Amino acid sequence: MDIYGKEITKLIDELAALPGIGRKSAQRIAFHLISAPEERVRALADAMVSAKKHVHYCRECYNLTDEELCPICSNPSRNHRVIMVVENTRDLAAYEKTGRYDGVYHVLHGAISPMLGIGPGDIKLKELMKRLEGDVDEVIIATNSSLEGETTAMYIAKLVKPTGIRVTRIASGVPVGGDLENIDEVTLLRALEGRMEL
Ligand code: ZN
To answer: How do residues 62-73 score in pLDDT, each as one tens digit?
Structure first.
């Protein structure tokens, strides 16, 4: 039943289509926007359109950025010889929040999943191997502990080992199937410090 008219319903539908926003929250946001000053709403809309237009992958690590290199890759005080491999930018953000990792990252944008038909060619693996032609001391595999994450970790270990570069895997203790972004910082640090040779 349409009780608000089609403009509000359209807005609620669009908001409810966003991840993590249910119908109720969508309604609350819609009413908030309608009662907010027009310049606030315009600033939000502009930020969305502008980010969509200017944000792309970092040339080096495939993090999201609006520069050629993301702030982590262009930071000379980070250790560029240690690369932590994560499935997505949210996992990268989770490790950055700990403030204790000073290496760089490589974002795969997915994990190998034969069931979903996602193969090694569908994630940023070739790009990782290309980076390993440079000076790299260690690859830390921090994919999730889900079946896909483990499959991906094993696959990467097999590729990297012949290069002679040290390959490690973050310790378990990270709940099975758990998204890294939902895990507290202490657990993440423990997983990083307890990483094991593969
Ligand atoms: Zn980067």
So the answer is: 999 999 999 999
Distance CA 37, CA 13 (A): 22
Write the pLDDT tens digit of every residue in 90-144: 999 988 988 889 999 999 999 999 999 999 999 999 999 999 999 999 999 999 8
| Span from the CA of 130 to the centroid of ligand 1 (angstroms) | 14
CA of 14 to the centre of ligand 1 (A): 31
Helix (H/G/I), strand (E/B), else coil: 100: coil
Per the document, the length of the chain is 198
Query: What does pTM read for this prediction?
Result: 0.80
Give the pairing of strands 79-86 and 138-141.
parallel
Distance from residue 58's CA to the centre of ligand 1 (Å) = 5
**CATH of residue 116:** 3.40.1360.10
- The token duo for 127 is 């790009």
- Ligand 1 centroid vs 68 CA: distance in angstroms? 8
58 lies in some domain: no
Looking at the DSSP bridge assignments, the partners of residue 107 are 86
